[in-house]
Specification:
3 domains; Beta-Lactamase; six-stranded antiparallel beta sheet; alpha/beta; binds magnesium ion; binds adenosine-5'-triphosphate
């Protein structure tokens, strides 16, 4: 019956035979993945279909029962399937095989399931073998942005900017570790006690980070930033209320006239999304080079060279840092350079590139405001070991960076461009800057949604002459403050 993918190991074959004669209870509990606290026999007692009749918590019981059965079947599957042979199996073949193994085990358990339950079970078992187990349904759910696993029993997702606890769980830490291992070994990495954290990219492009015990105290921590095939464009962001059409027109002028732009923001505030959207304003005939830790940007232009930096391997060798990529990029005749995130010594080369002929370059930094962003740049330069007087550092920054765009995730989960600030030069030892647009908060609705609006600050753009010379004659109305409604 399990002809194609069944293990040929005689011991297992014998054990499976035993399963058929004695109900398989002992055989299954002896498997390495078996949980000692969940002996097979008790499940069989809990399983009869009649027991689930109580109207009130019928659904809950059904879930529990399915969960238990799934564990059993999963064990049976791991025991019966020849995992090596699976690599070449078609999904259809594999599903059929899983279905027949599952049906046989269900018969042995004396469990009757309806069609829906059987289908759900087969799907979950399929994900277990071929995909990322319990995470797979969340990965396929289009409404989920982030998946955050805090140990085997707690999985949060982010939908519409809000974190929600899901009812998805792993069986135990071992199960979670097996899925982590599956992900990282697919990209030639390893994660264990001696090397307890890892960054990787899932097959679909999603960004993956894991940290395992003992560094992760209560069980492995996993964070997944889902890859969006259709990144939000300028129009989407305007429609979502991330910024206004007037701001978009200003940004178009800024990017087209090759101002150097930094997108600043906190974790998950929408920096990469903003950078991606801004890059759509770049002319199609420019040569753009992108450098990222994990390739997330999706530029629509024809002439794009993408680079991905690489961390050192297990032996600590083979690292290609963002700085290495950046240095190399400068020899590759770029018109513009886009660095996914500047967070270390590459800041030196980034500023230099911005200062020396690669204007129109863009990057993101982690900071909470434009001012804070400048301090971050100063700190990064200091930490890169460059011994320069602060004034010289600041002067370097002020001549390199023209615009800081602040992305924020507000407390109601909405993501907005809360400020667009121009850097205009130096005044004494201080970098002078002026805010052109901002998000004005005015209050909270009873259900905690933020009330506010975007407005220009009324300050005339430092670059208006430049815009005009390049053919972007922005109407004066764009820069007029909006009165509070
Ligand atoms: N204005 C927006 N409205 C709705 N969703 C958004 C908006 N901006 C970004 N997102 C979504 O929020 C998630 C996080 O966005 P993004 O990856 O751009 O953040 P980030 O600041 O680059 O995060 P990180 O700090 O982890 O790199 C993504 O799934 C993205 O699709
Ligand atoms: Mg990002």
């Amino acid at each position: 019956m399990f002809s194609k993918y069944k293990k040929v190991d005689p011991l297992v074959a014998k054990a499976t035979g035993a399963q058929a004669t004695d109900g398989g209870a002992d055989n299954v509990t002896e498997l390495p993945t078996a949980a000692p606290e969940a002996p097979r026999k008790s499940i069989m007692k809990a399983a009869p279909v009649q027991a689930v009749a109580a109207a009130g918590d019928k659904e809950k019981k059904r879930k529990e029962r399915l969960g238990d059965i799934k564990l059993e079947l999963h064990k049976a599957l791991l025991d019966n399937l020849n995992l090596a042979a699976l690599e070449n199996a078609t999904d259809q073949d594999l599903k059929a095989e899983i279905q027949s193994i599952a049906q046989e085990s269900l018969d042995e358990m004396g469990v009757v399931l309806n069609r829906d339950e059987r289908q759900t079970l087969t799907k979950e078992l399929f994900f277990e073998v071929k995909g990322l187990g319990p995470l797979e349904t969340l990965l396929q759910d289009e409404t989920v942005n982030d998946i955050l696993v805090n140990g085997p029993q707690q999985i949060f997702v982010e939908r519409d900017g809000k974190l929600q606890l899901t009812d998805v769980t792993f069986k135990d830490e071992k199960h979670l570790l097996r899925i982590i291992d599956k992900i990282v070994s697919a990209v030639g990495r390893r994660v264990d006690e001696s090397n307890p954290y890892v960054d990787a990219r899932l097959q679909d492009g999603s960004r993956f980070n894991a940290m395992v015990p003992p560094v992760a105290v209560d069980g492995s921590l996993v964070s997944i930033r889902k890859f969006k095939k259709d990144k939000l464009g300028i129009d989407d962001l305007v429609n979502f209320g991330a910024f206004t059409e007037e701001m978009a027109a200003y940004l178009q002028a800024a990017v087209s006239t090759r101002l150097n732009v930094i997108v600043s923001g906190g974790t998950g505030s929408g920096k990469t999304t903003t950078l991606n959207a801004l890059s759509s304003f770049i002319d199609n005939d420019e040569r753009i080079l992108t450098i990222e830790d994990t390739a997330e940007l999706q530029l629509q232009q024809t002439h794009v060279g993408r680079m991905e930096s690489r961390p050192p391997n297990v032996e600590g060798k083979g690292e290609v840092s963002p700085r290495d990529c950046l240095k190399n990029a400068l020899r590759m005749r770029p018109d513009r350079i886009i660095v996914g995130e500047t967070r270390g010594e590459e800041v030196i080369d980034m500023l230099q590139a911005m200062n020396t002929g690669h204007d129109g370059s863009m990057t993101t930094i982690h900071a909470n405001s434009a001012r804070d962003g400048v301090s971050r740049l100063e700190n990064m330069i200091a930490m890169a070991g460059i011994e320069m007087p602060l004034k010289a550092v600041r002067s370097q920054i002020s001549s390199a960076v023209n615009l800081i765009v602040q992305a924020s995730r507000l407390q109601d989960g909405s993501r907005r461009m809360t400020s667009i600030t121009e850097i205009t030069g130096m005044e004494g030892d201080v970098i002078s800057m002026q805010e052109i647009f901002k998000y004005q908060r005015v209050g909270l609705t009873p259900d905690n949604k933020i009330i506010g609006h975007f407005t220009a600050t009324g300050v005339r753009s430092h670059f208006s002459e430049r815009f005009k010379l390049w053919g972007y004659d922005l109407p004066a109305a764009i820069f007029e403050p909006v009165a509070a409604q």
